[in-house]
Write a structure and sequence with these properties.
By secondary structure, the protein is mainly alpha-helical. It has one domain. The chain is 61% helix and 2% strand. Helix 10 crosses helix 11. The longest helix is centred in the C-terminal third of the chain and has 27 residues. It is globular, with a radius of gyration of 21 Å. It starts with 13 loop residues before the first helix and ends with a helix.
Length: 364
C-alpha cells in the first residue's frame, strides 16, 4: 500500500485536539519555558554518552584488563547505548532537543554511532510510525514478517503460537540486526517507495552514508576492542553481542509496551483508505503510558513511558511530558477519549505478553 494515502476522520471530535493544543501551549506560556530541552536534557546527554564511551576507552587503553571487568564494561555500554537511543537521539531526530535545527541535526547523528542510520530511522519512526500508528501495512514498527504476529490483521501461522516464548530472544537481536542488515533492507524498500527521495537524498547518497557510518561504527566499537582490549578475540565478540542484546531488549520492551498491548487498538484501512477516527484520537486509541510515577525510571528511558504525550506532541522535548500529561489526561476525560495508562512497567509487560500470546495462538 502506498504511504500517505490514509485519510483520518477530521470530523471525529475535532474540538478535543484543538482544546488540548491551547491548554498545552498555555502551560508553556504561563511558566515562561521552552518546549525544547533544558539543563536536564544536557545533563542526561552527558551522562548517557559517558556510559557508552568511557567503558570503551577503559577497555582499549587496557585500564580494565580482567575478563569479568571487561564484560562489565560491555554491559554498561549496552545501557549507555539504549540510553542514547531513548534519551538523546530520539528527541534530536524529532527536532525537539533544541530550538536550533543545526543542533538537532548534529546531535541526531549520534544514532550512527550506535549502529543505525539517521535517515532510515526518521522514515520508519517519524514518517511511518507516528503518522500511521498500529495501522497494518503502513506502520513498520508492527511489521515483523515471518517472525512475529503483532497485529490481529496479520496472517496467522502455526509458528506464532510460540512467540510468547521466543519474543525475548528476537527482541535481544533488535539492535545488532539494525547494525548488520536492517538499514540495507530499508534502503531498498524506502527507495522503492520514494521515501528516501522525500528526505532530500538519492539512493546513491544514502548508500554511501550508510556505508561510511557502518564502517565508522564497526571500527570504533568492534575493531578497536579486538585490537587493543586485553581479552581474547572471542571474548570481545561475546561482549559486543552482549552489549547489543542488552540494548535491543531494553529498546524493544519500552516501545512494545507502548503500542502492542491488550488494551490498545489495531487498524487496517478500509477499501477507500478512510479511518474512523481523527489522527489525535487514533493516537490515543493505539498508544499507552506506563509507570508515570517512576521519576528515575522515566529519566533513564527518555520519558518514553509517556508515549501518549509523545505521540500527540513529538515536537515537545520529553523532559516536559510529566507536566503536560496531567493536562492530556484531564482533557481526554472531558471529551470521553481513552487514556490508556499502566501504573507500573511490570503491568505493561504483562499486558504486552498477554497480547503476544493472544495474537500467537490466534484467538484474535
Amino acid at each position: 500500500m502506498r504511504k500517505g494515502v490514509v485519510k483520518f476522520n477530521n470530523s471525529n471530535k475535532p474540538e478535543f485536539f484543538k482544546v488540548l493544543i491551547k491548554r498545552v501551549d498555555k502551560h508553556f506560556t504561563q511558566h515562561n519555558i521552552s518546549k525544547q530541552g533544558n539543563w536536564n536534557m544536557i545533563a542526561k546527554t552527558i551522562f548517557m554518552c559517558c556510559l557508552y564511551f568511557i567503558p570503551l576507552i577503559l577497555m582499549v587503553t587496557q585500564t580494565v584488563t580482567s575478563v569479568g571487568a571487561v564484560m562489565g564494561m560491555w554491559v554498561i555500554m549496552g545501557l549507555g547505548m539504549s540510553g542514547i537511543g531513548l534519551s538523546v537521539m530520539h528527541d534530536a531526530n524529532h527536532g525537539s532537543y533544541s530550538k536550533n535545527p543545526k543542533i538537532n541535526r548534529r546531535v541526531g547523528y549520534i544514532i550512527n554511532l550506535v549502529g543505525g542510520y539517521h535517515i532510515n530511522w526518521k522514515i520508519q519512526h517519524n514518517v511511518l510510525h507516528h503518522s500511521f500508528t498500529n495501522i497494518e501495512g503502513l506502520d513498520d514498527d508492527i511489521s515483523k514478517h515471518n517472525i512475529m504476529r503483532l497485529s490481529p490483521h496479520q496472517e496467522k501461522k502455526a509458528i506464532y503460537k510460540y512467540q510468547l516464548y521466543y519474543a525475548p530472544f528476537f527482541y535481544s537481536l533488535l539492535s545488532i540486526y539494525w547494525f548488520l542488515g536492517k538499514d540495507i533492507e530499508q534502503l531498498f524498500k524506502y527507495n522503492k517507495e520514494n521515501l528516501i527521495q522525500e528526505q532530500g537524498l538519492t539512493f546513491r547518497q544514502a548508500a554511501i552514508e550508510i556505508t561510511i557510518s557502518k564502517l565508522l561504527y564497526a571500527s570504533l566499537f568492534l575493531v578497536l576492542p579486538l585490537l587493543f582490549a586485553s581479552v581474547a578475540w572471542w571474548q570481545t565478540l561475546l561482549g559486543f553481542v552482549l552489549m547489543h542484546a542488552i540494548c535491543g531488549q531494553i529498546l524493544a520492551l519500552v516501545f512494545q509496551c507502548a503500542h502492542v498491548l491488550d488494551e490498545t487498538d489495531f487498524f487496517e484501512p478500509a477499501t477507500d483508505t478512510s479511518m474512523e477516527n481523527s489522527w489525535a484520537i487514533h493516537q490515543m486509541r493505539t498508544t499507552a503510558n506506563f509507570a508515570r510515577g517512576g521519576r528515575v525510571f522515566s529519566w533513564l528511558i527518555g520519558g518514553l513511558n509517556y508515549q501518549i504525550e509523545h505521540h500527540l506532541f513529538p515536537n515537545i522535548c520529553h523532559v516536559h511530558y510529566r507536566d503536560i500529561s496531567k493536562i492530556v489526561k484531564q482533557t481526554a476525560q472531558e471529551y470521553d477519549v481513552p487514556y490508556n495508562d499502566h501504573k507500573t512497567f511490570g503491568s505493561a509487560l504483562v499486558s504486552h505478553f498477554t497480547m503476544l500470546n493472544k495474537l500467537g495462538v490466534g484467538t484474535i
